[in-house]
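Record now logged for everyone:
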Amino acid sequence: IGMASRALSSEETNGIKVYTVGNDAIVIVVHADNPVKSISLTQLQDIYMGRITNWKELGGNDLAIVPIQREVSSGTRGAFDELVLEKQEPTAPALLTAVTAGDVANNVAKQSASIGYVGFGNVGSDLKVLAIDGTLPSKETVRSGTYPLFRPLSLLTGPLSQPLADEFINFVLSPEGQADVEEFGWIPVAR
């Protein structure tokens, strides 16, 4: 069984069955004291591309923005680059790179001018979640498609997969398996 944490192209799935078992919202987080509550998808792109560099441009305090991205092999980074940056390489002048979602969360919690992105299950109470175009991430807004930043979490099988793989996938898609998906902080697809 393979795994993917982003949408796959038809070239990538040639001969492969894709079983979406959950979704993960890419949540935009800032320091708890940041007065900004919502930004647009375009503004988010502009932050990471270095076109917006100060929070006052977004109605916040006069502080230089410190964007934090994930390292290049991260599935969350791949989805963010695709959904937000349209596959452009971020060029913000103060851009920092973090290895894990926990590192992003810790950096944002400690730096009042920072902004970062984490998966739905990685949002702690010490972070403030920004709405995108007025919509906050939730199970409901991801399922309805009104929150724009989410990615599928999928299991993959191919011609060499063993029959046991199908049993596991059936379990993950069962009510018990979907409860586990939710317990781990993701958004189940079959509930």
Remarks:
- The chain is about 30% helix and 25% strand.
